[in-house]
Amino acid sequence: xxxxxxxxxxxxxxxxxxxxxxxxxxxxxxxxxxxxxxxxxxxxxxxxxxxxxxxxxxxxxxxxxxxxxxxxxxxxxxxxxxxxxxxxxxxxxxxxxxxxxxxxxxxxxxxxxxxxxxxxxxxxxxxxxxxxx
Length: 133
Known about the structure:
The chain has a single domain, classed as Rossmann fold, CATH 3.40.50.2300. α2 packs parallel to α3. It has a 5-stranded parallel β-sheet, sandwiched between helices. It is α/β, with parallel strands linked by helices. The longest helix has 17 residues. The protein is 38% helix and 17% strand. It has 4 helices and 5 strands.
């Protein structure tokens, strides 16, 4: 099952995304701060992170830097009411959407990233248990 981590300081947005994406069959984990996010990156091992730009303990850009520093292959989508200007070379999110109560665009973006990631990630193979004698 695909796990999506939603990071937003607004509990209503977290709840909306959690309910909408659970209905789509995703496992959903939510965080209200960057600190919670970093803890959940380890314990929940999300396939996609949806990240707000304005967090209570640090900027979303700084959180992105930390996430990509340790989990470069995990896609991150900024989902914010603020527009994003990517000016730092080498540091970028995998997508950016304006926040809306209509989550269709966000669902499409997550679905596309999951599909792209599954095509580029080789499947985990089962251990070879055959024995030759």
